Amino acid sequence: AVGISVPLNLVFGVAAAWCVSKYEFRGKSILVTLIDLPFSVSPVIAGLIYVLLFGAQGFIGPWLREHDIQIIFALPGIVLATVFVTVPFVARELIPLMQEQGTQEEEAARLLGANGWQMFWHVTLPNIKWGLIYGVVLCTARAMGEFGAVSVVSGHIRGYTNTLPLHVEILYNEYNHVAAFSVASLLLLLAVFILLLKQWSESRINRLKASAGEE
After folding, report:
1. Which residue, 49, 53, 116, 131, has fewest beta-carbon neighbours within 10 Å?
2. Counting Cβ atoms within 10 Å, is residue 120 exposed (0-12), middle (13-18) or buried (19+)?
3. Model confidence pLDDT, tens digit, residues 146-163
4. Which of 87, 35, 81 is CA-nearest to residue 54?
5. Which of 12, 31, 40, 20 is nearest to 135 (CA)?
6. Strand, helix or coil at 112?
7. CA-to-CA separations, 65 to 68, 77, 98, 134, 160, in angstroms, rounded
């Protein structure tokens, strides 16, 4: 679930941040509101909405069943729930960074004949890479520990739709405390690794801001 949802949010976050920070267009405020929506909606409510949409008795559930497509109680539902709760992290980290940098360097590259992809790879990406890494780290941590929305859409099918946090709950409810502690310890080690990456990327960002202030 993390391996699918984080790259999707990376692409969406960069595209959304580029649009919000570099362009003026109708509906810009709506896009910003949609990015922030997961912060104001309970993950459990988000999972319930997916069930109401894609469940057997949901809005498009009968059509999905006719075409033998299963979203709820399967990997697609888990990925959709994880994507929703982690949408803001990459975009929200990049938007203020890209707004602070402005558009002067991109405009200069355009005057020198660079196309859109060349501007992104050679101008924009090098300027935002540490902020992007920081956003991806936050997104990964949130996706890895998500419980509420995933619990609603997963069905807790052992070996098929149970993520690590759900597996800890299942083992604990079965009074298998040793196994639950072992899985929780694995999550803790992953969290420590993510925390170290967060601190490293945050220090690089602060160092770049300090050097920019001196200039």
Report:
1. 116
2. middle
3. 998 999 999 888 778 889
4. 81
5. 12
6. coil
7. 5, 14, 44, 40, 19
Task: Tell the residue number behind the tokens 């790879």, with chain if given.
Answer: 121
Which residues lie below 8 Å from residue 14, measured CB to CB, with a gap of 6+?
Answer: 90, 91, 94, 128, 132
Here the tokens at position 15 are 């595209």
Half-sphere exposure for 120 (CA within 13 Å, toward CB): 10
The pTM for the full model equals 0.83
Residue 204 neighbours by CB under 8 Å, 6+ apart: 130, 133
Q: What is the mean pLDDT of each run of 10 residues along the chain (215 residues)?
A: 93 92 86 90 91 88 89 92 93 89 82 82 86 89 90 85 89 90 90 85 73 58
Residue 20 in contact with residue 32, Cβ under 8 Å?
yes
- Tokens linked to 51: 């069930």
Residue 203, classified by CB atoms within 10 Å of its CB into exposed (0-12), middle (13-18) or buried (19+), is exposed
d(CA 61, CA 50): 10
Q: Which amino acid is at 115?
A: N
d(CA 39, CA 43): 9
Contact 97, 208 (CB under 8 A): no
* Nearest one of 154, 169, 162, 190 to 80, comparing CA atoms: 154
